[in-house]
Amino acid sequence: MLEKDIENVLISQDDLRDIVMRMAKDITDEYHDKFPILLGLLKGCVPFMADLLKHLDFHLEIAFMNVSSYHGGTASSGEVKIDMDLGTPVKNRHVLITEDIVDSGRTIDSVVDLLKYRGAKSVRVATLMDKPEGRVLDFTPHYVGKTIPKAFVVGYGLDYQEKYRNLPFVGTLKPKIYMSEE
Ligand code: IMP
Hints:
- By secondary structure, the chain is of the alpha/beta class.
- Helix content is about 25%, strand content about 30%.
- The chain is built from four helices and nine strands.
- Inosinic acid (IMP) binds near residues 102 and 107.
């Protein structure tokens, strides 16, 4: 039913599986002896983080933060707000943030700064997707699943007005979906 609103599939379910396995291997090489905090940025991280952590065969702690910047539209508002803070102290801990997508870089840059300010031993970012053309800040994620063009995508955690997060793949929406909302 949701699939009928999709114009193009950008990352298929098979591709997602391969991407997650590759990232899990790279992350395991780096973190297997570090007992890191795997910090998910809600809500977009949920499918990616859930799939990723099943392939991380070492001790880790999970935590979540909810920060918002888009407020339901398709263009960044430029404001980042902490709606829910993580409950775990990060002082002297290695933190690996799992994010659905890095676009302007504002969201992730402020979260990284905050965690460093709180005394994290290291802070790195694993993002499923990177949209470097949207960048307004100089920020390079440490682990990238796939670099994509500057298009608005939905599915596998990413939403348009809170919808489509439950699609099992990533794709672009048909233009009529945006037009019918206006
Ligand atoms: P940034 O602060 O501009 O890097 O935006 C990052 C956040 O904006 C992501 O965590 C997403 O929640 C949202 N976002 C950015 N691009 C898209 C997109 O193409 N589709 C859905 N959400 C997006």
